[in-house]
Amino acid sequence: MTQPHIATAGDNVVDCYREMGTMFPGGNTLNVSVFAARFGASSAYLGQIAADAAGDAISAALHDEGVDTSGLRRVPGSTAHCVIAHDAHGDRVFVSSDLGVSVFTPSSEDLARLKGFDAIHVGASSQLDAWIPAFAAETRLSYDFGTRHNAEHIRHVGRLCYLIVLSAGGLDDAAFESLLEQGEGSGATWTLVTRGTEGAVLSNGGRRRWKSRAHRADGVIDTLGAGDTFCARVLVGLLRDEDPSQFLAEAATAAAQTCTQFGAFGHGVPIASGIGASTTC
């Protein structure tokens, strides 16, 4: 397929950089929707935001990126946010967070729409696990576990998935291999395990593995969204039946580029009034 149709559902947030006074739209599935569109997919986002300034920022960014927002709900309350600071070493510190209204219940109309998509991407942070069987019944399912490596969870979800994504940054070789084998044995068609500066491995159920080196980026200032960039390029490449060696290399380059800007995909605006008053997570 020349232009895969990809839906994403679940978590959204504004990432608030306290020292900068700037907030950026983000969240795993929202990021994937934007990057999938940038990689040539027809992309749609299903989720929930509030009728506030943070919600306006998310909605405007999705519109500017060409993502279909007909499944984006706006309800009373507050849009999810996360306040980010940096320590004396420049490392990112999460100061406070609030899910706001981001947790939502898919409607029958949402499920019916999925029949027109080639895949839906959700993640462990989407809090939509109860709906995974319904999603998988309508289209291919892509699921990002992040750093949540519970073996039973991987088996339970993986058997329904076209693609599963696991983050193994910081794991030694033995722990990485064990995690990759868990993914391969889960029943998922494809398993992607990313390792940060150590690159990534893609496997088709253990029959063959493709390895990707991390791309060196000059001027790295923020790693937020790099993994989501990689995931989106891999999902688009798989749906297009492209050569894994090629799209993995392109995914690494794109992820490195993401690290050269603040926020997952830009679109920063001043932090909305009232966000960040709390200093506890």
- State Rg: 18 Å
Structural class comes to alpha/beta
Q: What quaternary form is this?
A: single chain
In spatial order, strands of the major sheet run 5-4-1-8-9-10-11-12-13
Name the poorly predicted regions.
Answer: 277-281
Largest sheet: 9 strands, mixed
Q: Treating each run of at least 4 consecutive H or I residues as one helix, how many helices?
A: 8
By DSSP, the count of extended strands is 14
Estimate what percentage of residues fall within beta strands: 25-35%
Q: Please tell me what the overall shape is.
A: globular
**Average pLDDT:** 93
- Summarize the helix and strand pattern as letters: EEEHEHEEEHEHEHEHEEEHHE
Helicity, in percent? Answer: 25-40%
Distance between the termini: 44 Å
